[in-house]
Structures are given as C-alpha cells and as structure tokens.
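Notebook, bench 3.
Goal today: get a predicted structure for Two-component response phosphate regulator from Listeria fleischmannii 1991 so we can plan the truncation constructs. The sequence was checked against the plasmid map this morning, with no discrepancies at the termini. Length recorded as 231 residues. Pasting the sequence as submitted so the record is complete.
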Amino acid sequence: MKILIVDDEPKILDVVEAYLVAKDYLVFRANSGEAALRKFALSQPDLLILDLMLPDKSGLDICKEIRGSGNETPIIMLTAKSKEQDIIIHGLQLGADDYIVKPFSPKELVMRVETVLRRSGNIRNKDVYKLSFAEGSLIIYPNSRQVFLHDKEVCLTKKEFDLLYTLAESPTQFFPRETLIESLYGYDSFNSDRAIDSHIKNLRQKIEKDSKKPQFILTIHGKGYRFGCAE
C-alpha cells in the first residue's frame, strides 16, 4: 500500500519512511504544501500523513482541499501544537481521521497508520482473508501481516510473524526445528535451533495468557513445535 508523508523536517521524513518501509509500505515524500498536492494527485496514496505547519500552505488548507474534492483518503495529522486543541479539533472537523503530537514515537505512528487503514476498510487491499483461533481471540491477517489478540494489535517482528503464520497455517502439523529454520532463514542458513527457540519464547510472551502453559504454540519435546488450536 502507498503512503504519502508530508513534513518540512528531513529527519522526520527519514525516520517515518524507514519505519513504514520496514512494514512493506511504498512511501512517497513531500516537504511543502504544493509538492504534497502534486504528489497526492500522482501517487494516489492509500493514506496521507500530513504536518499541519508547512512553509507555504497549512496542513489544514491541504486537508480542506482534499476533502472538498470528495476524496476520502485517510489522513493523519502531525502537529507540534499540543496546547492548541482548537487547531486539532478544526482539522478533525475538516475530515482528518486522526492526529499525533510531536515529538512522537515512530512505532506509535505506524500503529495508528494500521488502525486508521483498518477502520477505513482500506487495510492492505481490503484484506478479508484471515486465520481465526480460539473463538476469534487470536486473528492473523496474512496479507497485511497483522495479528490481533482480544481485538488489540500485537506488534511482531518480521521473523516472529513468519514463524507464527507458518505454524498457524497448518495447525495440526508438527514442525521440526530444522524445517522452521529453513522456512525463516533459507536452506543455506547457519542459524542454530536456539534462534527458533528464541523466537518461540518471544511469541509466547506476546500472544499467550501464560507463556509457561501455552495455548497456541506447543512444544513437541525433543522434536520441535506445532500450533495448538484448531481453526
């Protein structure tokens, strides 16, 4: 999916772009209002991250112009004006979907991006394919690479997600450690069993109610792992 970031601070553009690219988004950048409108028209992004304070045109004006054309692309506003709630409220009234106050955590911004896309029904080409377990308490969206536990998104690393999906896609199948290493790292990998065990430990801490009594990721002692819940 495509995301356009608009900010006149190069460091913010660099950091946000790096985090979004790591999540497999295609990122476009603009450092002014006029450039933002041009790139918005050309790239047709799935979401716009828009700074309110730009050198030539305010983010509020850009938001108003986009919404005035009938375009419903989700917009997240960036603002340093934490004390000027009237500006934030005005932006939301103009049609912005969310806002975050500078300085902000890039991880939090990425989570808000995913939340806004999901809420708008635009998440990863309307990803309707999912794996659901334990009466919907654990849901895995393969296309968007998202995991939800009790309706709250769980932040996983790329390897953690790949490992979880490999196990969950075949919930009754036993996976030797060697097979999981090949799946995650390739046939020529020099990673040891400890790499898989470390990922399993981290996954359990994130998705299990009790990591010492796992419900989802079960150990087959001396052999490997399998997923413990039928769909």
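Residues 193-207 form the longest helix (15 residues). The two ends are 28 Å apart (CA to CA).
Flagging this for group meeting.
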